[in-house]
Amino acid sequence: MTTWLETTEMRWFADGPLPAEVHTWFTLEGTVGRVERRGDDYLLDGRTDVGIKRRSGDLLERKVRTQVGAGASLPEGPAGQLEDWCKQSPADHRPPPDGGVRRAWVAKTITRRRFAPTGEEVVPSDEPPTDGACDIEIIEVGTAGGVAWSLAIAASGDAQGRESVIQAVWTQLLGKAPSPPMAVRSLGWSGGYPAWLAEVHRCDDAARAPLTG
Question: How do beta strands 59-73 and 79-89 pair?
């Protein structure tokens, strides 16, 4: 059975391994986070508004950016881009034969915390957030091009209220932890996985291109 999930998200990427101080800040004693390790196989077609992947190399998912909103700042946190996404799982998209496709294997270690619309922190499940819930994640990311890490916050529910949910849940998170470390407050590159992968592989291709002239 196909499911559709609409979310408003803010996501950042930074080069290098996940800083220890970020992990410590996010996983304070008493939190109810969940750790997931998996590898996703992404189709690389240069688009930044559509992401197609095989989740854990198996389940085909398609995620489409439906709107780019205004920039927003989180209290004591980074500024970034608000983006609306719609995910189809399993997807009915049929990519071209493997021989003509560029792909990227992305290994992920995801630490996720989930907050109910009331602001109460709840135990994350395997199911995506619904009914106005909001997930906050820190992710260690490994690709053929190197290592990076990501901070992401995604709210579901009524489209008109999702930005407010993001702000409220971030404030709730701050109420449970000290101020975010500088590595979080100084995050700059904001966007989804398709845009980040396009940037990573564009830089990788440029580095490997032969000099001419």
Answer: antiparallel
